[in-house]
Amino acid sequence: MLKTVLRLLCAVAALGVAAIPAQAQTARALPQSREQVQLSFAPLVRQVSPAVVNIYSRRTVQAQASPLLDDPMFRRFFGDQFGQPAERQQSSLGSGVIVRPEGLVVTNHHVVENGSEITVALADRREFPAEVVLADERTDLAVLRIKAPGEALPFLELGDSDTLAVGDLVLALGNPFGVGQTVTMGIVSAVARTRVGVSDYQFFIQTDAAINPGNSGGALVTMDGKLVGVNTAIFSRSGGSIGIGFAIPANMVQSVVNAALHGGRIERPWLGASGQDVTAEIAQSLGFDRPGGVLINDVYPGSPADRAGLRKGDVVTAIDGRAVEDPQSLTYFLALKPIGQTADLTVRRQRQALTLRVGLAIAPEVPAREVTDLAGNQPLAGARIANLSPALAEELGLDTLAMGRGVIVLAVNRLSPAQRLRLRPGDLLVRINNREIRSVAEVMPAINAAREWTLQFRRGDQVFSLAVRG
């Protein structure tokens, strides 16, 4: 019996081997050359790594001995000069990418922020001083220029980040933890990742290629050797890589580099409309088959959106044919467009599909800022204020329509009366002694008209009132 079963198994095995198609047998054939045995990214790494640099930045910071020194009672006995903050030098390390043969380097803004001395070290160990050509905190990007006249510098060509697809292979290059240039490999885990909270323009490439502290400003490279992103941040509970890293898309990098090459000033289009996500509940109420798009809540009078015919209640679903899933993606796609051109918004209005052509213009500086430092024996002394305009709101990353118009606090001096009132940058002055404040010119007359003050200011969605005696 056992012999019979064995014969049957052998017969079945023989039939199985005979049934394998010739194509499958060819796929299982042994490698016939060294190239087939040794699959390697080494040629690509040799091509791109010379353009990835280390960046050393030194800055001067104020070191406070103890928070007790800010206590008014403590300073009453020991004086304001006691325990003044001491200056010390702080160094930071990051990565960067040379993107132009004349020595333009792209890195993260936070790598060189407030840096007084910046050094760029190439992969071949050459070191050069560098200067900041453009620093854009809103995108967390900075453009440096290497001071190396006559030197031959390697560079990477910028790719089109809009062509990336989930699953594409990528390499990440940088200097993690200061150990030296390091290459890691992974795939594109997601595109158009929003709500990361790293910068104002939240629209990132997500990758599982290992990115760690020190990789900031480094290169995310595709298999054809193009720079497709600048590594910026990681999601981590330990401080090290867990396979969730984020890179700024190359198309945004290109817009910042273009600005650096043409005057060093970034001018971005202003839509003049605010909106919110179309959630599942909103989509159902509007009769949409799925969530997505931006539901317009308000339109600024006279803005490009207003002139194009955009209305409250419209849902923007695409811009120039590219799907808009949320307000962040709408802001990102607009930021890539040059001033003076137009953009086509695909809009749904009461189940009707429309295309609205928007002229792209910068936010207006109306009213003029009139930046003023307040002084004297009054509760707002030590505050720097300005008239809030659409241009200033855009510069500060504020929602123009949510903030409205009025007088905004730009800065508050340490140990000043304004700081003791807990006034903060970004607060909007609303009223002084029940007198509405609409401009900087109205602040001091309202302050000087009394010796006791009731101050009202708005912070985000909250309104605060303070009573102060002279």
What does this structure look like?
- With 470 residues, the chain is an alpha+beta fold.
- It has four domains: 50-64 and 72-146, Beta Barrel (Thrombin, subunit H); 161-261, Trypsin-like serine proteases (Thrombin, subunit H); 273-359, PDZ domain (Pdz3 Domain); 372-469, PDZ domain (Pdz3 Domain, Roll), CATH 2.30.42.
- The protein is 21% helix and 35% strand.
- The protein has helices spanning 2-19, 22-27, 34-37, 42-48, 72-78, 109-112, 250-261, 280-286, 304-308, 327-335, 390-396, 400-403, 417-420, 443-448; strands at 52-63, 86-100, 104-108, 117-121, 127-136, 141-146, 169-174, 182-193, 204-207, 219-222, 227-234, 245-249, 273-277, 294-299, 315-319, 322-323, 342-349, 352-359, 372-373, 383-388, 406-412, 428-432, 435-436, 452-459, 462-469.
- The strands form four sheets. Strands 19, 20, 21, 22, 23, 24 and 25 form a seven-stranded antiparallel sheet that branches. Strands 1-2-3-6-5-4 form a six-stranded antiparallel beta barrel.
- It is globular, with a radius of gyration of 29 Å.
- The protein starts with a helix and ends with a strand.
- Mean pLDDT is 85; it is low at 1-26.
Briefly characterize the structure.
The protein has 470 residues and is of the alpha+beta class. Helix content is 21%, strand content 35%. Strands 19, 20, 21, 22, 23, 24 and 25 form a seven-stranded antiparallel β-sheet that branches. A six-stranded antiparallel beta barrel has the order 1-2-3-6-5-4.
